[in-house]
Amino acid sequence: MRIKALLLFLFLFSVSLFSEGFAQEKPRIGVLRFTNNTYAGWWHGGVGYELQDMLISELASTNSFRVLERRELDAVLNEQDLGASGRINPKTRARLGKVTGAKYLVAATVSAFEHNTSGGGGGISYGGISLGGKQDKAYMAVDLKVIDVETGEIYDARTVEATSKSSGIRVGVYRGGFGGHLNQYKDTPVGKAIRGCIIEIVDYLQCSLVEGKNSGCMDEYSQKDRNRREKTKKSIDLE
Predict the structure, then answer these.
(1) Is the dihedral of CA 16, 19, 20, 21 positive or negative?
(2) Residue 195, Cβ neighbours under 10 Å: how many?
(3) Which residues are registered as beta bridge partners of 112?
(4) Beta partners for 67?
(5) Lowest-pLDDT range, 1-5, 143-147, 215-219?
(6) Cα separation of 22 and 16, whole Å?
(7) What is the full DSSP assignment across the chain?
(8) CA nearest neighbour of 109 among 187, 176, 62, 55
(9) Of the candidates 220, 214, 104, which has an alpha carbon nearest to the alpha carbon of residue 160?
(10) Less Cβ around it within 10 Å: N or C end of the chain?
(11) CA pair distance 15, 37, nearest whole angstrom
């Protein structure tokens, strides 16, 4: 009886350790190129990839996810093919069949952008076209979708927002950097709104994918979403 009890204890203990390790597995995610549904003047052909890289860097820096690099996948596969050709030392060659698959794909679309101007005659501007005055405030919204790769279903969806002024925004510290076309906006309200949205996306994905949809942090985002919807309703003239 003692041996059976000991074996049962060891079995249950092993199952507990396995379950705990499985539960703590970091979500495997891939990030798609951003798309744009606005007339923002800062959006150019390569900006979708720049925003993709910014989000990838920020997600990786949290150490909460296994972020899979898909843009460089061709180079990885070429290296593996070279190893399989027999021209590389077998001890150091990259082995086939070891590329990690994503559980989720993150798709993001810039759905709203505007900035107001003040000073120097005042005015207002939309879509990156200034009608006078000095830029003072920028607003950006991103529609976020989390797609389950195995089923193709949308696992989660949320709209995140960021508003910035010339004095700055309080949304945390962005660990990436601006490059390419967006570099010229890094110290402007436009750049701050972009950074704010990137940070908000990362925070939300940590809440949804790491802490879980039933966690307390979702209450904050649900309230933000209700506020956003209410503001949208008030801005629509139904008459």
Answers:
(1) positive
(2) 25
(3) 141
(4) 29
(5) 1-5
(6) 10
(7) -HHHHHHHHHHHHHHHHHHHHHHTPPPEEEEPPPEE-S--TT--TTHHHHHHHHHHHHHHHHTSSEEE--TTHHHHHHHHHHHHTT-S-TTTSPPTT-PPPPSEEEEEEEEEEEEEEESTT--EEETTB--SSEEEEEEEEEEEEEEETTT--EEEEEEEEEEEETTB--S----S---GGGGGGTTSHHHHHHHHHHHHHHHHHIIIIII-TTSTHHHHHHHHHHHHHHHHHHH----
(8) 55
(9) 220
(10) C
(11) 49
Q: What confidence tier does 178 reach under pLDDT thresholds 50, 70, 90? A: low
Residues found in the chain: 239
Tens-place pLDDT, residues 95-125? 666 667 788 999 999 999 987 755 554 444 4
- Unique residue bearing structure tokens 């991103």: 142
Question: What are the structure tokens assigned to 41, written together?
Answer: 């003047």
Contact 121, 133 (CB under 8 A): yes
